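Reopening this ticket.

The earlier resolution said the output was attached, but the attachment link was broken on my side. Pasting everything inline this time so it's all in one place.
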Amino acid sequence: MKVLLAGINAKYIHSNLGIYSLRAYAREALKDKAPLIELGEYTINHSRETILQDIYKRKPDFIGFSCYIWNISLVKSLIGDLKILLPGTALWLGGPEVSYDGIRFLEQHPGVSGIMKGEGEAVFARLLDALSRDEGPGGIPGLVYRQGERIIDTGEAEPLDISRLPFPYEGMDPGEMSHRILYYESSRGCPFRCSYCLSSIDRRVRLRDMDLVKRELAWFLEAGVPQVKFVDRTFNCSHTHAMGIWRYIRDHDNGVTNFHFEIAGDLLTEEELALLAGMRPGLVQLEIGVQSTNPDTLAAVRRKTDLKRLAKTAERIRKAGNIHQHLDLIAGLPMEDLESFRRSFNQVYAMKPQQLQLGFLKVLKGSYIYENR
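Inline output:
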């Protein structure tokens, strides 16, 4: 069996952590029984014809698409044609855009064989193992799939111990990645309950073993990767974990690699601020989600933020002059009208970040705000 995992990224320089992690876990779990697993990375700027042509040439028996808000429209437009071009190929989807609405999605898209819900590594490995033995996917938690005219939902899979996940880039030629932004996770879950965020579904924060993290950081540093973006939802929710990683990259700085972290600015401690102030300029980039300065809005989306402390922290980081600071706002949140948003914008602009990112509210399937819309 030949498997193709397809990731359609927003830009060429991005990498798709999901498909790298699925392949690495399946290879390790199935060992010599693992089928040939290829990766196909495309972008939303590729034409449909270019993507279809590449997939057709590979002749996979199984295609798995990683579905996100930026690529779901393109994926939907591809699956119908792929069913015609490769009628014997199984089409499976995973990712946040299909995980929480699997039955309806299969009803609307009869060419799709099934959906892997939530964390996909163990589910994917078990599915490949069953298919390689000509067995059906019954009994594997974390799936929605077709069985004749019926659609079966097998429930939720248990969350993984993320220290059991193999390094997603293991065995790759570092030279292949030298021009890419590589994504990395040292934790899963988030202790906060922001209603627009999928991370609020799982409040159990699972931290990757620090010795593993350090070995993997060493790979990025030795490879001279230009930027590593941590996808941890609130990186500094564990003081010990954050300090361990920040100390390591400070002490092993290669003068080239930049590390990007999403943090809660009002949680930064004096010890963390002192450590960050001693970093090489350009070594660290911090993204702080302010989202709004309207207390009513923050309460409505269940977000707890000490705005005064956040503003003081942003000022200290700015004055240190060695860290690129990136502050986020979301337009369209509850309780926020045009005048309220103007105040939020002006207050965050006054913090003088290197970058102020303005996003529009995206009501994500599975989020609290989606379920209660």
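Reporter confirms the inline version is readable. The CA atoms of residues 107 and 307 lie 45 Å apart. The first strand starts at residue 2 and ends at 9.
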